[in-house]
Amino acid sequence: MPPPPPHRPTSTSTPSGKGELAELKTQLRQLAGSRAPGVEDLKRELYKKVISYMTIGIDVSPLFSEMVMCSATSDVVLKKMCYLYVGNYARVHPDLALLTINFLQKDCQDEYPMIRGLALRSLCSLRVQNLVEYLVGPLRSGLKDTHGYVRTVAVLGVLKLYHIAPNACKDNDFPAMLKELIHRDGDSQLHFSFVSGGIQFFYLMNNEHMIYMIKDFSEWAQCLVLEMVAKYVPEDPNETFDIMNLLEDRLQHANSAVVLATIKVFLNLTMSMADVHQQVYERIKAPLMTLVSSGSPEQSYAVLCHLHLLVMRAPVLFSSDYKHFYCRYSDPSYIKKLKLEMLTAVANENNTYEIVTELSEYAANVDVAIARESIRAVGKIALQQYDVNAIVDRLLQFLEMEKDYVTAETLVLVKDLLRKYPQWSQDCIAVVGNVSSKHVQEPKAKAALLWMLGEYALEMPDAPYVLEGFVESWAEEESPEVRLELLTAVAKCFFRRAPETQKILGAALAAALSDAHQDVHDRGLLYYRLLQHGVETAERVINPPKQAVSVFADTQSSEIKDRIFDEFNTLAVVYQQPSYMFLDKEHRGAFEFSDDTSTNASVTESSETMLASQSVDANDNDLLLSASEKEDTRGNLVSNGSSSYVAPSNSLIDGLGSFTVPPAASSLPTASFAIDDLLGLSLSTNSPESTLAQPSLVLNAKPALNPGAFQQKWRQLPVASTEDYGLSSQAAANLTGPQPLLKHMQTHLIHCIASGGQAPNFKFFFFAQKSNASTGLGYFLVECIINVTARKCTVNYKTDESDLLESFAAVFKSAILNFGV
Amino acid sequence: MPPLLGIEFLCKVADVISEYLGGITEDLIKDNFVIVYQLLDEMMDNGFPLTTEINTLKDMIAPPNIVSRMLSVVTGGSSNMNTVLPIATTSNWPWRSTDVKYSNNEVYFDLVEEMDVIVNRDGFLIKYEVYGEIRVIARLSGVPELTMTFANPSIINDVSFHPCVQFRPWETHQQLTFVPPDGEFKLMSYRVKKLKNTPIYVKPQFSSTGGLCRVSILVGIRNDPGKQIDYTTLEFPLPSSVASWDLTANHGNISSSPGSKTLTWTIGKMPKDKSPCLSGTMHLEKGMDHLEEFPTLLVKFKIMGIAMSGLRIDRTDVRNVTYSPHKGFRAVSKAANYEIRT
């Protein structure tokens, strides 16, 4: 509550000191015994003053006894203010707490039900652990009160009691009393609101039978019940259908929170029934679309995020609804961005033309950020291979628009397109050749243009001369990315059109060798030496024949997407991050409705880190081209050029190429490790722990387990064993992100299904399967929580193969202990 | 935490506070902080929404209206709470208290439809949907049960209802059956998609060469809705490259806000005998040869007395009461997001 402004009569200037407090004290004292008419109004003014002092942080606790004395009244407003006052000070001054309790307990027996209720509420809201014993009595009588309001408050009180002292709650038989109340209470008004309290309680107690009463509850309580139902696993399909029939009309509720909660129930219930699941998608489409288009921008953003998640999971089902994702001129840009992503996802053979036409209109948009996004979207659709011909035409039209940012984005796209569809080179190159290099300013676009100049030097007659211009302005070029690309392009051009390029290459190499940037310098030196070695060798390294790229690396792994889907209807969807990435551990779990402010703090904090990490991702993606080429050059150099060339992003895809091995690490022992593992032998055979391992355990090299199945198993199986291991300091140092450990475990045939966390805390879910096990059996599931600073790792094993657990644990242990060694 | 729960609750809080205080501003909240505190105390407990139904709240906490202030002055009483607690009443309808009394019983239905239209550069209609709401103002004594049927319920694509609407009758024979809350509320909202005929057409032309841009925008009635199209305005942001303009209209007037560079052409009532036309030239800034970005035209208008989706209320009945109330119906269609791309 904001403090009243100073000019209001309720709060004069801040009390200068003891003087004002003393004055208030005497005034209160005078009024305490008075019964004169109008005295309540005076009291109210005084109370307001006291409370406004309190809210701006002035200690008015000396007035405590006077305040309590004055509140012997039937005026509810006065009472309420008094409760606010005592509630505030009881927490800070334990000596006053007992006084407060006495005062409130007395009020709990007041003749007015409203006052009884308010007193009980304040009493329960004190939340002081050692005063629990005083709560039980009033609560018990509150639950049996003749008046509904008091009962409602009492039910909520039980919940609060449960939060601070679950045992006291159970010892006093409150759960049974509540249950009885819910089933017995005929007063539906009471029912309506009080149940929300009761439900929160049963929410914690996991009682699943609330669903049949759902229509009697208030909308908020319905949300809770639905949340609960979503966790329920029906015994057979019939039960699933019963529940869904019962809940179907909830989809037409005016409250969007109820609608979303219902959708979550539907999705979760039908998870294992593919065809019904699909029908559910069809059913929930209309309500979601309505929610998106009506309501405030905040609401439609939140709904759109959920829709986005669904579209990404099953684009096909939404492909006929693409018009809903058309951007309105007045949409805020965060909504437009989501819509663009969805348009990209739903594009297929039938609607590509319309969607691309629509996207092209956005490219002329006034909003530059959106124009860029929409061009990228067109490119993505083109890469999805529908009707590429027409799309390429569009892209080339973009180049003719002669706007710097449009040209820049388009060049990057054309480059990606050419990497995937080299057969389009003729058309593209004809147009790209016309692009004046002066219009291209952005580093990424320049790099793309240079790549094309190098790659298609033969098709572009003036390629060497354009490159020459670039080399001449080498010193002015600020971005090392562009300089690297320029060097490579000149070299490639040289292999194709040596006579024209020789001079330029010399200039470029000279410039590179004197470059201040280490990478540029090194690459220059490398090229120079290669060329010294022989032009042919150099060409084999720098410009080998390329395979077309088939799939570009996705930014967000499907594991993460599945995790987010499991957290449907939570903030995880809005942040597009699983909750463990933005929540502290202590806030997870059952108490998610606690009104703790620190949750907010951690949420904002982590959303920042989220943004940072996303932008890093984006950069990585853009650098994909140059980085991967570099990688391969190095790889080929090491193997002395004998191995056949692998296309850059292929190597990225099988996940090895991007994993930079520092030269020192590729020393002999590690190498032999890897080879052993490739042969499918378990590592334990040459590790000290091998004595423990039973020879019968051989792990399946390619076990199949999707996240959904994993989760189900994880839920079903009990924890078989829990162990703590200490990690070596090297391991801790290596664990800057989840990736390295993931890779490491994979070499031990232990696969990761989900991982997350920020340093210093990481959490992993691994699984492995016994080889020659029948499908769906012989799995070992591991939850592994690592704290890097403490160098500790806590491991929970679950398995349906308990007799092999010991040997598996040994394998796991040796694997994790070997990490970073 | 379900995000929509938070958003919905905050909207409710804002609704309730503005209902109580007649608005929601910093000053109003400061002036009435005791009431706001009381309200919040009842609306949220233990971090979870509790009582958010405005009618129930009003029974618990009296709004600070003139009547109660007068009353307190006259009687000398000071409490602004009702001494009789509403909770004790065994109402089966939490959104309604049982002892409502009016001397004039009346109920009004407002059909409000908003059009969402996108016309693309080539004049093709690429999206046309209608979002509609039925708003009801009920001032009825006792506990009346209302039923409402539509002449053509099948055109509705998706609906959502106020909690007071019973679902069974709707599912079986598309009939709305409800015991209304007292006062004003939103009975249902619906969506009708894939409509074909827009009431008006807009034909914009921007052609630019040599630093000059010719503009001509024609507006006219395409499918006469049978009612007056009123409050017609057309606005578009001026492209940043426009230095000055010289535009005239044969109907209505043109104004521009200097700060936002938006041009507004107010037509008002749509004439039936001629097509309003805006024409003239815009001068581009030096060095610009032709227009690089094309503005999007936003059209606004209102048609009273008709629902563009074609939805018609067939009949309404009030049962369970002895009197026969006055019933009123209105319909209005608005262009909410009516955009013409150029």
Automatic annotation (TrEMBL), chain A:
Keywords for this protein: Membrane, Protein transport, Transport
Main location class: membrane
Positions of the Beta-adaptin appendage C-terminal subdomain domain: 697-817
Residues annotated as transmembrane: none
InterPro entries: AP_beta, AP_complex_bsu_1_2_4, ARM-like, ARM-type_fold, B-adaptin_app_sub_C, Clathrin/coatomer_adapt-like_N, TBP_dom_sf
Keyword Nucleotide-binding assigned: no
Localization, UniProt: Endomembrane system
Record family assignment: Belongs to the adaptor complexes large subunit family.
Protein name: Beta-adaptin-like protein
Annotated source species: Ceratopteris richardii (Triangle waterfern)
From TrEMBL, chain B:
Main location: membrane
Compartments in which it is found: Endomembrane system
GO biological process terms, semicolon-separated: intracellular protein transport; vesicle-mediated transport
Domain MHD positions: 104-341
Entry GO CC: clathrin adaptor complex; endomembrane system
Sorted UniProt keywords: Membrane, Protein transport, Transport
Transferase found in the keyword field: no
Record-linked InterPro entries: Adaptor_comp_med_subunit, AP2_Mu_C_sf, Clathrin_mu, Longin-like_dom_sf, MHD
Family per record: Belongs to the adaptor complexes medium subunit family.
PANTHER family with a match to the protein in the record: AP COMPLEX SUBUNIT MU
Protein known as: MHD domain-containing protein
